[in-house]
Structures are given as structure tokens and as C-alpha cells.
Amino acid sequence: MKNVTDSFVSLGHWPSAGSFGFNTDILATNPINLSVVIGVLIFFGKGVLSDLLDNRKQRILNTIRNSEELRGRAVEQLEKAQARLRKVEMEADQFRVNGYSEIEREKFNLINSTSKTLEQLENYKNETIQFEQQRAINQVRQRIFQQALQGALGTLNSCLNNELHLRTINANIGMFGAMKEITD
């Protein structure tokens, strides 16, 4: 501390011989130089520093304001998206319920249709069986009738001679003639 006061006191004791020199005593000159530089910086830089800090403060406030606006818009979009999600989930549930009921309805219709088809096939099968039975019965009847007719013809041919044959034909012609007269 003594050096600092000595440096201020020694200001009046500079040699006045017209020489100019540098004080190389670092401890004595640095605090003075620093105080002068800091004083000049404070005096002249106060406005610049204040402007820089104000600009920085405005930029920070603008950034905060923009961030708040973006956050507000993001919250709004999130709420809209959540509302849309709820709506879509409700529609999906509705489709799911409708889909299940539609599936059950289609299943019921398919079962009914299949049952009707099976019933129709069963009826067709029974009709086919009846038709085939009737056809077989008719074929058997025809064969029996043909065999009986052949047997009767064989019996008649073996029993009839020409004379009996001619008398039977004449009797039949007479019967046809009598029937014709009755109908006229």
C-alpha cells in the first residue's frame, strides 16, 4: 500500500529535465493504468454495454415469448390431436361393434343358407331316390307284363289252332261292330 501512495506522492517529484521515460516498476504503474482503463471503459462503455445488455435482454425476452407462443400452439395442436384420437377410437369401437354384429349376422345368414341348401339337397336326394324307385318299379312291371304277355301269347299260340283262332277273331270283330252301332 505504501508503494501506491508513494507513486501518487511522487508525481510532483518528476524530474523536469525534459526527459521522457518509462516507469518500469510494475507494482506502481499497473494499478494506476488499470484504474484509468477501467474508468474510461466505464465512462465510455457504459452506454454501449447497456445497449448490448438491453439488446440481449430483448432477444431473450423475444425468444421466451416465441417459445411460449410455440408451446401454446403445440398444446393446442396436442389437444386437437387428442380430440381426434378420441373420436377415431370411438369410431373404431363403433366399427368393431358393428363389425362383430355384422359378422354374427353374416354367420347366422350363412348357417341359414347352408341349412336351406342342405335341406334342398336332401329333398332333391329323396326325390331322386323316389324317381329311381318308381322307374325301377315301372321297369319291373314292364318286364313282368312283357313276360306275362309272352307267356299268355305262348299259351294261346300253343292252345289255339287255326279254326279257334279264326272264331276268336270273328267274335272280336262282331263285338267291335256292336260297339260301333251303340256309339252311333
Automatic annotation (TrEMBL):
Q: What is this protein called?
A: ATP synthase CF0 subunit I
The protein's location, in the record's own words, is:
Membrane
Molecular function, one GO term: proton transmembrane transporter activity
Give the superkingdom in one word. Answer: Eukaryota
This chain's source organism reads: Myricaria paniculata
Q: Which residues cross the membrane?
A: 32-49
Quote the InterPro entries the UniProt record gives: ATP_synth_b/b'su_bac/chlpt
Q: Does the keyword Plastid apply?
A: yes
Mention any one GO cellular component term assigned to this protein in its UniProt record: proton-transporting ATP synthase complex
Which key words are in the record? ATP synthesis, CF(0), Coiled coil, Hydrogen ion transport, Ion transport, Membrane, Plastid, Transmembrane, Transmembrane helix, Transport
Q: State the gene name recorded for this protein.
A: atpF
According to its UniProt entry, one GO biological process term is: proton motive force-driven ATP synthesis
Coiled-coil region(s): 64-98
What family does the Swiss-Prot or TrEMBL record give for this protein?
Belongs to the ATPase B chain family.
What does the record give as the function of this protein?
F(1)F(0) ATP synthase produces ATP from ADP in the presence of a proton or sodium gradient. F-type ATPases consist of two structural domains, F(1) containing the extramembraneous catalytic core and F(0) containing the membrane proton channel, linked together by a central stalk and a peripheral stalk. During catalysis, ATP synthesis in the catalytic domain of F(1) is coupled via a rotary mechanism of the central stalk subunits to proton translocation.
Membrane topology recorded in Swiss-Prot or TrEMBL: Single-pass membrane protein
